[in-house]
Amino acid sequence: MCGIVGYIGEKPAIDVLLNGLSHLEYRGYDSAGVALYENSDIEIYKASGKLINLKELVKDKEICKTSKKGIGHIRWATHGLPTTVNAHPHTCNCKSLAIVHNGIIENFQELKEELLKLGCNFVSETDTEVVAHLIAHKYTKCKDLLEAVRLSTLEIKGAYALCVMHKNAEDEIIVAKRNAPLLIGIGEGENFIASDIPAIIDYTKKAIYLNDNQVARVTKDTVEIYNSDKSQGNNKVENLPFEPISLSKMGYKHYMLKEIHEQGDVVRNILSGRLISAEEDVKLDNITIDLKNISRIQIIACGTSYHAGLVGKYVIEDLTGIPTDVEASSEYIYRNKTANKNTLVIGISQSGETADTITAIKQVKEKGAKVLIITNRPDSTMARLGDSLFSIDAGIEVSVAATKSYMAQLLALYLFAIYLAQNNPRVDMKAKLKEIKHDILQLPSKIEIILNNKDEIIEISKKYSGFKDFIFIARGINYPTALEGALKLKEISYINATGYPAGELKHGPIAMLDDSMPVLAILNDGIVYDKVLSNCQEARARQARLIGVASGMDDKNKEIFNDLIIIPKISDFVSPALHAVVLQLLAYYIAGYLGKDVDQPRNLAKSVTVE
Ligand code: F6R
After folding, report:
1. Which of 245, 274, 488, 489 lies in the 20 to 30 Å Cα band around 368?
2. Is 69 among the domain residues?
3. Backbone dihedral angles phi then psi of residue 371, each to the nearest 5 degrees
4. Could you give the percent of the chain with pLDDT greater than 70?
5. Interhelix angle for 455-464 vs 576-593, to 10°?
């Protein structure tokens, strides 16, 4: 989604801005722009499409050689088409300031009407331009940029991370934030501004996170932070967690492929210190919530994280008997909340910045629920909101399509469910837990067996890349795997793919089946194996081409499948983690054959910071 970078110091600002924006590209965007300050003048350059277009535009500009202060932005369109004119930075009538903005200004129409009456002319369709005019208008009265921004934020409804420069405010950049992340990177004789760590990690490992409703003056040597009532903020300088190396493709063609291949280590990493052996208890020292009186669990998440939550439901209910619901955050926030002090809410999010999930979590906190956050970003807004944090530490995920973070979320949920079960004196399930822990410990090597033997998956991907529609079917604990496999395929290849409970096929979707619609079935030894096999027979009888992903198959059943991918033997309970790897690879290679932009699929963003 949108990304912000700002710089003030001694380096050529353009280099820092373009480098920072390139590290935010993975989030998904459709246009880019920069504003550069020099001798009481501001020049703005914007381009639709990829960052390369902006680089071309600025490459011979004189100001790039001398300017040491600037702001930059990549935009993911919310208001108005992804055109150059709608790209940020935006300015006011007299072009005395430049502003970049992440978030959505909810009352921009009302503000715009007021500003039109004051004589402002609007050139774009964006909500951000309204803020540019509002700040400019305030500045003409108070002549202080920080105060003009502070006063403006009092009138703005909605979410914003703002970064503002004014021609007359030579030594400063003003920033402000509400419900959208913003941090100030601290350097020596230089300071940085970013909406996310990767934008500035090449330059500094120290940063100050702004809190909601704060505004700050950033000079090259100082940072002054104020709350909305003008009192001083006492935000601390924090250490940033990322190493620059994590942003490299390490020889892989795409980040997605690299991240799929990291999953063995991701599992080892999350198990480390938490699950040592099948005989020992799971240790989750960071979970400080008192779980004794929890009578119900609600899992709240979006997209792939929601699918991890669905697996979590199976796992938690099976091991603990605690009723567990899984809610898509965007639906949950507009319903009557039944959470109370005996409810444990688990918020799952790779980015920790998904606006819908953040809103839902704030709502359940008001109801007194305890909140556990499972995220890959311990520095995120969501991590800060939770009562306890399960940091999945999968390393930064650059590809928009979530893969290794999904794997780590699954593992976090397995570990948490075991932790709940082992501490539950009502049921003794030592033997069952021991078996599960044993299987979990074997996951890394089994994942690597799949990754080291992927030629067959590549061949099958090629064979099926021409189809326009797919159905993914499974039952039980792998039903969410079918949903996730279908989501991976559609988001990166733009093929229409639907995940369906296999038993539901005959209640409707079977009508669509013929030889133009492949059915991918996920089968694992266990209670639903024979049932899924019967559903495969039903599909085959309608001439559907059948791809099986199975942990073993009798010779007599093999022949109903057109193609069969056999994964290492694994218990049904833990199998979603292995099947997911196969489906990720299939989606990746099919999208590759179709020549799609695998890491940055159209219209998608890595971190969805608007509701
Ligand atoms: C799909 C994908 C999305 C995210 C969703 C939630 O590959 O990545 O569906 O899972 O946007 O994002 P997070 O997990 O950051 O809350």
Report:
1. 274
2. yes
3. -125, 125
4. 98
5. 50
As beta bridge partners, residue 7 has 70, 192
Domain count, the chain: 3
484 alpha carbon – ligand 1 mean position (Å): 11
Looking from the CA of residue 606, the nearest atom of ligand 1 is 8
In this structure, the answer to whether residues 517 and 443 fall within a common structural domain is: no
- Ligand 1 atom closest to 304 (CA): 10
The residue segments making up the domain with residue 188 are: 3-246
Atom of ligand 1 nearest to the CA of 608: 11
Q: Which of 43, 29, 35 is nearest to 7 (CA)?
A: 35
State the helix-helix crossing angle for 128-142 and 145-155, rounded to 10 degrees: 130
Beta-bridge partners for 325: 298
Q: What is the pTM of this model?
A: 0.81
Distance CA(311)–CA(321), nearest Å, equals: 15
> Which of the listed residues 305, 600, 610 should we mutate to test ligand 1's pocket, taking the one with most ligand atoms within 8 A of CB?
305
Q: Name every residue whose Cβ is closer than 8 Å to that of residue 490 and which is 6 or more positions away in sequence.
A: 496, 497
Say whether the peptide bond before residue 480 is cis (omega within 30 degrees of 0). no
Question: Ligand 1 centroid to 403 CA: how many Å?
Answer: 10
Pocket of ligand 1 (CB under 6 A): 302-305, 349-351, 354, 357, 401-402, 487, 491, 607-608
Distance CA 128, CA 310 (A): 37
Amino acid type, 368: G
Co-location of 431 and 464 in the same domain:
no
Angle between helices 576-593 and 479-493 (to 10 degrees): 20
92 is catalytic: no
